[in-house]
Structure formats: structure tokens, C-alpha cells
From TrEMBL:
<protein>
    <submittedName>
        <fullName>Rab-like protein 2</fullName>
    </submittedName>
</protein>
<dbReference type="GO" id="GO:0003924">
    <property type="term" value="F:GTPase activity"/>
</dbReference>
<feature type="region of interest" description="Disordered">
    <location>
        <begin position="1"/>
        <end position="20"/>
    </location>
</feature>
<dbReference type="InterPro" id="IPR027417">
    <property type="entry name" value="P-loop_NTPase"/>
</dbReference>
<dbReference type="InterPro" id="IPR005225">
    <property type="entry name" value="Small_GTP-bd"/>
</dbReference>
<dbReference type="Pfam" id="PF00071">
    <property type="entry name" value="Ras"/>
</dbReference>
<dbReference type="InterPro" id="IPR001806">
    <property type="entry name" value="Small_GTPase"/>
</dbReference>
<dbReference type="GO" id="GO:0005525">
    <property type="term" value="F:GTP binding"/>
</dbReference>
<keyword id="KW-0547">Nucleotide-binding</keyword>
């Protein structure tokens, strides 16, 4: 299992808003954002990856939750990571542009028990590309523990766009470490690679990652539920 460690952060500006601004702008970490409809389990997935006892930073002024973390890569080097969660912004069907600013990777989540969350992936992906064109993106189908039969269905959204796809469960941990570790490594690659070489390098990296990418099938298999 990938070794994981938690790190604390310090703030210097006086007042809650100043402290929040320091958290947003004072980091040189790999920035991984989570996208998807409300209540698909984005926060639960982050918390499952970070394990119990981790206390996130609730940035109420900016309507987001920031998880600051240090990841140990397979070769042993440490990667500082900031996970950004939406804290309810998605209820307005759009994210503030600052949410996407300098993002290095994205984990896009839908709930296998609610077909509308799958349909809305198109909306989220379009907005993501508007602000972060070419960003490494991993699509995850969450809550498979409710009905594991869903893993036999084809979800064409990811395969049509050649995006890595995983079935996951925040409840029992299925594929959670694999998803987040993959996103961190792809995000680090985007952060460190010159723009001209980035796209091909990330495709190579993601191609080496064992995913549960499905072949093209129904556009919306959840319609059959």
C-alpha cells in the first residue's frame, strides 16, 4: 500500500480572511481539485484516502475545503499536495474561476445510484476544459458498494475522451488509494513538465497506471437501473 503522511500548515496573515488567503496563495504544492454534483461523495473519498483523524481547513470565505497533505511517491520522494473540495459551490451549477486556478489534476466524481450525476459530467468537464485545458482528469464512479452489479456496466463518458476510469467506494475503500495516487503523480508531471512536452508525457504516465477503463458502451447505462 502506498505510504501516506499528513502535514500541518501555518498561516501568517491576521484575521480569518487573511489566513484563508495565505492558504490559497502561499503553497507551491501539487493542486488536485475534485469536481462533480453535490452529495456524490467527493469529501468522503478524500477523507477515506487521508484516513481518520485528519482535520481539513474549512475556508468559508472562499466556499471550499482545503486538505494539505504530503504524499510519498513509489521512488521515495515526497510530494506536497493540496486537495481542493467544493464545500457546496457545485449546488450553483458552476465553480468560481479561482477554484480552477493553477490546478494540476482533477478527480471527477459521479454517484452510480443517481443517473443525473452521470449526465452532469459533461457540464463539469466542459467547464474544467474552459479553465484548465488538457488537465489530467480521472473519472470515478462512486458508491459501488451499494450494488456491485453496476461494475459490469459500460460508462462511455470516460472512454470516449480517453480518460482513466475507476469504480470506487468511499465506504469500503475500493480503488481509493489508486485513484488519488494516480492523480497526484499526473499532477506532479503537469506541474514540472514544460507545456510543449506535457500532454504526451501525461498520456504515457496514465497509460502505465492500471485502471478499470471500460470500452465504449451505452452513453448512460444508469438509465437501465
Amino acid at each position: 500500500m502506498t505510504e501516506r503522511s499528513k502535514s500541518d500548515c501555518t498561516t501568517t496573515s491576521a484575521g480569518p480572511q487573511g489566513q484563508e488567503l495565505d492558504l490559497l496563495t502561499g503553497s507551491d504544492a501539487v493542486k488536485v481539485i475534485l469536481l462533480g454534483d453535490s452529495a456524490v461523495g467527493k469529501s468522503k473519498l478524500v477523507e477515506r484516502f487521508l484516513l481518520d483523524g485528519y482535520r481539513p481547513h474549512q475556508l468559508s470565505t472562499y466556499a471550499l475545503t482545503l486538505y494539505r497533505y504530503t504524499h510519498k511517491a513509489p521512488d521515495g520522494h515526497e510530494i506536497p499536495v493540496d486537495f481542493w473540495d467544493t464545500a457546496g459551490q457545485e449546488r450553483f451549477n458552476s465553480m468560481h474561476p479561482s477554484y480552477y486556478y493553477k490546478a494540476h489534476a482533477c478527480i471527477m466524481v459521479f454517484d452510480v445510484t443517481r443517473k443525473i450525476t452521470y449526465k452532469n459530467l459533461e457540464k463539469w468537464y466542459t467547464e474544467l476544459q474552459e479553465y484548465c485545458q488538457g488537465i489530467p482528469t480521472i473519472v470515478v464512479a462512486n458508491k459501488i458498494d451499494i450494488d456491485y452489479k453496476v461494475t459490469s456496466k459500460n460508462f462511455a463518458f470516460a472512454s470516449k475522451r480517453k480518460l482513466p476510469f475507476f469504480f470506487v467506494s468511499a465506504s469500503d475503500g475500493t480503488n481509493v488509494v489508486k485513484v488519488f495516487s494516480s492523480a497526484i503523480l499526473a499532477g506532479e508531471k503537469r506541474k514540472l513538465t514544460p507545456k510543449d512536452d506535457f500532454y504526451n508525457d501525461v498520456l504515457d504516465l496514465l497509460g502505465e497506471i492500471g485502471t478499470d477503463l471500460k470500452a465504449d458502451g451505452e452513453d448512460n447505462p444508469l438509465d437501465n437501473n
